[in-house]
Amino acid sequence: MSMKFRGFIQCLCVAGILFFSATRVHAHRVTIFAWVEGDRVHTESRFSGGKAVVNGKIIVYDDRSNKRLLEGVTDAHGNFSFKVPRKTRMRIELLAGAGHRNKWILKEDAFGMSPPTTPSQEVTPGPGKPMEKPDPNLVAAFESTLERLLDKKLSPVMKQLARMAAPKTTLKDVLGGIGYIFGMIGVGMYFHYRSKLKS
Amino acid sequence: MHISEGILSGPVLGAGAVLTMAGCAMGLRHLESDKIARTGIMSACFFVASLIHVPIGPSSVHLLFNGAVGLILGWAAFPALLVALILQAVFFQFGGITTLGINTFIMAFPAVIGYILFRALVRRRAGWALPAAFFTGAFSVFLSGVLAALALMFTEDKFINVAGLVIGAHVPVMLIEGIMTVFLVAFLKRVQPDMLPSEGPSSR
What we know:
The complex is a heterodimer of chains A (199) and B (204).
Chain A: H1 3-22, E1 30-37, E2 40-47, E3 57-62, E4 67-73, E5 79-83, E6 90-97, E7 100-106, H2 136-165, H3 171-198
Antiparallel strand pairs in A: 1-2, 2-5, 3-4, 3-6, 6-7
Chain B: H1 10-30, H2 36-49, E1 53-54, E2 61-62, H3 66-73, H4 77-92, H5 100-122, H6 126-152, H7 159-169, H8 171-191
């Protein structure tokens, strides 16, 4: 085995050790998730290694008008929540310091803004006894209770969904990147040996 | 140490891009064709090393490996790290496309400085070479922190505050990379000494 080939194999071994130790750990990136619970928006900010972003700056913008709505700071667990200032599409930005920044877009439908009722959805009273109009106060109270209960029940699911929507580093990404680099080595070697053969 | 999109001002991004282009030109000029495989493998090592998270200290940091890359590649560290950072931005969303120039400069310039300062000592006997290897690994991370703080001082906070935050968070990384570089140099001295930098001015 030539010295050069042995060196190549040794370098490959070092790269291999690094690679297999890396696939077991997390990448370094800052992430923010947000979900709505009742009239409040909850956010969770973490480094991808799992550590909470403590004292990270959160700025909330109206994504339509780009107007700053409010700002705050994450607590010791990386959480920050606020009362919905306006039911609109929001851009929640996280500044975690030292050049780390990310954002989360909260669309209008996250606030449960119901679509306008169309005539086909209205119940038409049948012949016979006319339908009694329900008490509007009772309907409002019922809707509000139902909304609160659903928020409570769905909150963990919303949180989980928000977490799942964040990009993750996969083995495919790692292998893909290494493949690109090795491909470039191949192209370089091709031109190197082609010029060598010509000369 | 990857600066995200939307943090830095235009002039800082522009300066980073220009400096990186100059560094890459130097690197490609010095890159001998029989060192292409070595450059690619070191680039792959850097690409993967950033995934190794160090769970020590108040913040979240990862290995850089730029000192070792610089020691083995010299000026060719610039193109090697640029390629790795492009792929990290695309595959892992580390840093960003607009910050590629400044991020490459922050990682590659300390690698080259470490190479220039310590290459002569690394070729000597172990009593000199191993401490020099440690300082190459640790110093490259330290200088990367200083450069990151310099880039961020125009948009984030005072230099001293950012530098304290970045360098403080990277102290464990400095120690780990110093030790890793010692092992790497000791290994190469035994099995492949011609991979270590020569006394001459050109990159290996």
